[in-house]
Amino acid sequence: MTTTTAKPSTLNKFEKFKAEKDGLAVKSEIEQFARMGWEAMDETDRDHRLKWLGVFFRPVTPGKFMLRMRIPNGILTSQQMRVLAEIVQRYGEDGNADITTRQNLQLRGIRIEDIPDIFNRFEQVGLTSVQSGMDNVRNITGSPVAGIDRDELIDTRELVQAVQDTITNSGQGNPEFTNLPRKFNIAIAGGRDNSVHAEINDLAFLPAYKEGTLGFNVIVGGFFSGKRCEAAIPLNAWVEAHQVVELCRVVLEIYRDCGLRANRQKARLMWLIDEWGIEKFRSEVDQKLSYPLQTAAPKDEIDWEKRDHIGVYPQKQEGYHYVGLHVPVGRLFATDLFDLARVAEVYGSGEIRLTVEQNIIIPQIPNSRLETFLAEPLLQKFSTQPEPLSRALVSCTGSQFCNFALIETKNRALAMIRELEAELCVPQSVRIHWTGCPNSCGQPQVADIGLMGTKTRKEGKTLEGVDLYMGGKVGKDAHLGQCVQKGIPCEDLKPILRNLLIERFGATPKVGA
Ligand code: SRM
Ligand code: SF4
């Protein structure tokens, strides 16, 4: 099924081990791994193939795995959240959950011996972590306010679920799509503000009218990597909602069968588009589809500035509100997960939503319960009115758990923002994104101020530092920010940020600070 042009002898190590045994094959070995323990496992199974099940060996915390979920459109039920809470709770201080920049959750502290039981529990409540790492399609993002947004164009929920079901065989694992050349990101925007950062996905859909019918313009090839970052480009294609799943399937098949595999640094979809040219790529897609691919609508409907959804908002359903809670750098503990499940049930419909800014939305709160909800002690921790800098702070995992990291991110980001907020009045929210290395999981290129971890030298010593990015624009006319200064030691960063906030974002020093 999968074709690769490279000869076996020239395959890189990843292509080699995938050719020897598909990543998904470890699904049937999981009981055995649980019995033998992580130390006795074959290293390629442990360090790589387990990622096909969403189970990530962490060299920083050996024996304590990370479990990356799939939460399509970032929506989960209180019942699912409670199961996740119980799992994380087992691991005491090691257990926590992070909301990711793909509207998803990652659990920590997980022991391999518990995985079979965890997977059984997932099955019972309709959760899956399958195909969430390595050369697979990542969590599919959709509008976080799908179905409740007063100004919604297209409800993305069913579409995102249908695309996930196709790619993962409804969560059971689908060997058709488990040997891609590299990772692959899909996003479906349904609102006017592109809440999903469509432009940084390999394949994305933007609402657009064609001759009075609402469908999607398609963009392709967006990605970030240590070597290169590109915004997606138009495919010159427009599809109706019912054509989205097939288009995803066809693009993935082309990428799987023709994508470049020899050099992993050049294996994302854009490199194939570069090699073929966008016209040839489009024509290959067109030929494989069961319907003729229409040319793009003249414009898409992304004409709003991006919303962050924090705060209290009326829904399209009369008499109901959704409430966006700020979760500092996306980090949650077992008690938080239990609390979120509880408030979602008591005040809403039991539904909980995640955003790519690593925050939470509780929807479906009737007007009659809103006031009591807003008085919940949980909202002291996860505020609806955070300070302007905290409000828009995003951070990747960093060195606490990630072995690629060049710096510590989450704790440092929070501490620095709190110090800056103590010193400055900031009139508007400023989107500051931290990422621990050039892989850019924290998306510094979409931020007003992006900080990318690096190592730097000062007075003969090697220190943790950052490269500074500026000018990322999200929502309407989205474009990527650029690196404006390299190698700033983290210990010297605060005054630089302070000046930037004063000079570029209208901040003023607080009296006495
Ligand atoms: Fe990422 C690898 C964390 C979103 C680009 N990313 C990793 C690994 C798996 C590396 C590792 O094994 O340690 C990190 C796991 C650390 C850990 O223990 O948490 C990791 N990436 C994350 C998350 C958790 C960051 C966060 O704190 O939110 C995000 C999980 C999303 C999810 O739910 O699936 C995450 N990663 C992203 C994004 C942002 C996005 O998708 O919008 C990007 C840039 C966009 C893109 O991929 O085009 C991103 N991650 C990478 C890359 C560079 C890919 C490349 O083509 O070179 C790597 C390295 C790799 O894949 O080899 C990487
Ligand atoms: Fe790890 Fe680097 Fe991704 Fe941060 S950006 S999670 S440090 S790989």
From TrEMBL:
Keyword hit for Oxidoreductase: yes
| GO molecular function terms noted in the UniProt entry | ferredoxin-nitrite reductase activity
User: Which of UniProt's keywords are assigned here?
Assistant: 4Fe-4S, Heme, Iron, Iron-sulfur, Metal-binding, Oxidoreductase
- Start and end residues of each Nitrite/sulphite reductase 4Fe-4S domain: 134-290, 391-498
- The Nitrite/Sulfite reductase ferredoxin-like domain extends over 63-124, 313-377
- InterPro entries, alphabetized: Cbl_synth_CobG-like (IPR012798), NIR_SIR_4Fe-4S (IPR051329), NiRdtase/SiRdtase_haem-b_fer (IPR005117), Nit/Sulf_reduc_fer-like_dom_sf (IPR036136), NO2/SO3_Rdtase_4Fe4S_dom (IPR006067), NO2/SO3_Rdtase_4Fe4S_sf (IPR045854), NO2/SO3_Rdtase_FeS/sirohaem_BS (IPR006066)
Enzyme Commission number(s)? 1.7.7.1
One of its Pfam families is NIR_SIR
Q: What class of enzyme is it?
A: oxidoreductase
NCBIfam families, from UniProt?
CobG, PRK09566.1
What protein family is recorded?
Belongs to the nitrite and sulfite reductase 4Fe-4S domain family.
Name of the protein in its database record:
Ferredoxin--nitrite reductase
- Source organism (scientific name): Geitlerinema calcuttense NRMC-F 0142
